[in-house]
Amino acid sequence: MSSMSITIAAGGVSQQRVTDATATGLDLFGDDKTVVAVRVNGELRDLNRTLPEGATVEPVQIGSPDGLSILRHSTAHVAAQAVQSLHAEAKLGIGPPITDGFYYDFDVLAPFTPDDLRDIEKAMTKIIKERQRFRRRAVSDDGARTELAAEPYKLELITDKASASEDDEASAEVGVGELTIYDNLRRDDSVAWKDLCRGPHVPHTGYIPAFALTRNSAAYWRGDQRNNQLQRLYGTAWPSREELKAYETRLAEAAKRDHRKLGAELDLYSFPDEIGSGLAVFHPKGGLLRKIMEDYSRQRHVEAGYEFVNTPHISKAELFTISGHLGFYGDLMYPPMHVDEERHADGSLKRQGQDYYLKPMNCPMHCLIFRSRGRSYRELPLRLFEFGSVYRYELSGVIHGLTRVRGMTQDDAHIYCTVDQMQEELTSLLQFVLGLLADYGLTDFYLELSTRDPEKSIGSDEDWERATDALRRAAETSGLELVLDPGGAAFYAPKISVQARDAIGRSWQMSTIQVDLMLPDRFDLEITAPDGTRQRPVMIHRALFGSVERFIAVLVEHYAGAFPPWLAPVQVICVPVAGEFNDYLINLATALRAAGVRVEVDTSDDRMQKKIRNAERLKVPYILIAGGEDAAANAVSFRYRDRRQKNGIPLDAAIAEITGDIAARRQV
Q1: Residue 489 to residues 167, 449, 453, 457, 496: CA-CA distances in angstroms?
Q2: N or C: which end of the chain has fewer CB within 10 A?
Q3: pLDDT of residue 457
């Protein structure tokens, strides 16, 4: 039997090994059930595929990011097999791995019920116990169409495969290269089920240690409301039952913190159908929360040397043609408004109309502000800042509360500087961003560096390399963990994304920083250099919150609605023991307002205990209670959110405690 040499790379150590020419990943790692796949010369592969001569082979552990994706995608296949075994009419959509789990879309006669989910889980458990093997087969396009003739959505994917991208969740099924089908084989090698898929998968279903179906919902095919509405089945899978249990605990806590639920309970915002999908309105308390956030941010920006600008919500198409947004971002822009066209009485054209677009970005307008007059290098860095409203036509299937909207306000800044100033500006900018996020209570960060997608970008390799290197150096200076996101940059610039972990460990993308060497050229931006020549400035894009709406959602969930006193829309509610003490607490409220405190007095006819419960439901930081003893002593009783109580606090001391906590931005 012939042999070959391979390199095994594991745990940072590489070693040469001679093995049979027909060796597979199972031959190398089959005894270790925590290895679910291999990376061969950098490419993820199934364990049962033959290894090539001279390959570098790395085991993929089930708990690694790639391992979890493979585990969850394999579980999605098991879920789809179970659904079709119970619902013969079900047609298959797509079933990609997602953060913490997977989903699979089905065209079925009726929505899934809770009983359906229990039956599907039972069928999945049976499939897992059968230890069905995943077998990969390469097929031609025509061969795939023949085999999957009864699956209309798979046929569409086969037809569209040339346009598939890694950003499309359908990429789990097809890519630009060859098509593959995965068969699920019983122990007698008969085919139990099959699906169009790129893979890889775990060797057999017995590698799935712990799973659960979590919910179902309606979803348009490929996220487009013009397409059929399908049933989406969500689930999760983990390397152990203990990790599954921990996840379910986190999920239950996340449900309690859901910003949509808390937004309604705290009367912060709503999403009226009459306005449209992805367009929120803020109620008085939500508007006040937003104002507090924005005012503090404005103050910090003034201190950091930013200048404030304002720009319109719409613009002629020419602006976005120059910037490149129509060419590279047009699918996420609202359709144009055609205006100003005039016609003669006979219907012939008198005056050509213009297309106007709702702006998806503020940056082109900021470039026009920079270009409005001559600029000297002495003015740089010039830091322009705006709370600017932008509009993006997100597909209805991905809209989610305040975290994915169609209308948003970005705390958008564009910094113009010289090439020599760029590195220092990026480093100080990142520190400013991290410091301001920390002021709002987010302190656990890591960074993500998104690099160029050659197929979806403008500009030279040299400019991209220079910009990417500058961002990398700024990120490394911060001392935070840096994760690469290959090909994830916008068409005009690489970026750093600040990822923040919230109180229950979830990661949220917050601020972004981009070095743009393209728009200054497209808008012909110039400065007068020290030697009198005209030169291009560097342009840095920076959204600190990302969007105000999304940032509010993150804070609501981070604090579970119990904001620190400085952010709370209502900081104090005063509760009289009886109506005769209303005036006493009204006078205290007047003194608190004079000290800058947001305070209400509950003078309703409700009993005291109900008033306290109402205040607790609103998660107010301080409830101040006064009765006869308090009034006689010119004092008040404190009740905190954790239900601690302090009695007989002199009014001056009460005001000092509250204003001190607010000034120090303490969480109580």
Answers
A1: 12, 8, 7, 8, 9
A2: N
A3: 79
Size (the chain), residues: 668
What is d(CA 607, CA 237) in angstroms, rounded to the nearest whole number?
Answer: 49
How far is 64 from 486, CA to CA, in rounded Å?
Answer: 18
> For residue 350, how far is the Cα from the chain centroid?
48
Helix, strand counts (H, E) of the chain: 19, 35
Q: In whole angstroms, what is the distance from residue 603 CA to residue 402 CA?
A: 34
Q: Counting Cβ atoms within 10 Å, is residue 631 exposed (0-12), middle (13-18) or buried (19+)?
A: middle
- CA–CA distance, 524 with 517 (Å, rounded to integer): 12
Nearest to 208 by CA among 184, 239, 235, 183: 239
Which pair of structure tokens corresponds to residue 575?
Answer: 């509760």
User: Which of 178, 233, 185 shows the shortest CA–CA distance to 206?
Assistant: 185
Closest CA to 123 of 75, 71, 85: 85
CB 328, CB 373: distance < 8 Å: no
Residue 378 DSSP one-character state: G
Question: 539 pairs with which residues across the strands?
Answer: 416, 516
Range in 164-178, 346-360, 412-426 with the lowest mean pLDDT: 164-178
Tell me which H or E stretch contains 147: helix 141-147
Q: Tokens 């994915």 belong to which residue?
A: 404
Distance CA 461, CA 452 (A): 9
Sorted by sequence, the CB contacts under 8 Å of residue 217 that are 6+ apart come out as: 231, 232, 234
Task: Work out the end-to-end distance of the chain between its first and last CA atoms, rounded to an integer number of angstroms.
Answer: 73
Q: Amino acid identity of 329?
A: Y
- The enclosing H or E element of 590 equals helix 582-594
Average the pLDDT over 324-342 and give the result: 88
Give the integer Cα–Cα distance in Å for 2 and 514: 53
How many CA atoms within 13 Å lie on the side-chain side of 381?
Answer: 25
> For residues 481 and 465, what is the distance between their CA atoms, to the nearest angstrom?
21
DSSP secondary structure string for all residues of 418-477: -HHHHHHHHHHHHHHHHHHHHHTT--EEEEEEE---GGG--S-HHHHHHHHHHHHHHHHH
Residue (of 80, 92, 82) closest to 124 by Cα position? 82
Q: Which residues are catalytic?
A: 363, 392, 410, 412, 414, 495, 541
Dist CA 601 CA 248 (whole Å)? 40
Task: Show the tokens assigned to 386.
Answer: 């705006």
Across the beta sheet with 43-45, the strand order is 13-20, 3-10, 56-61, 35-40, 43-45
Q: Cα(365)–Cα(369) distance, rounded to whole angstroms?
A: 6
Q: Which tokens belong to 483? A: 């994760």
Distant-in-sequence, close-in-space partners of 461: CB < 8 Å, separation ≥ 6: none
Residues whose CB falls within 8 Å of the CB of residue 566, separated by 6 or more in sequence, listed in order: 292, 661, 662, 663, 665
In three state form, how does the secondary structure of 68-123 look? HHHHHHHHHHHHHHHHHHHCCCCEECCCCEECCEEEEEEECCCCCCHHHHHHHHHH
> Of the candidates 128, 139, 140, 148, which has an alpha carbon nearest to the alpha carbon of residue 203?
128
Mind listing the pLDDT tens digit for each residue in 45-77? 999 999 999 999 999 999 999 999 999 999 999
83-121 b/e with 16+ CB inside 10 Å = b?
bbbebeebbbbbbbbbebbbbbbbbbeeebeeebbebbb
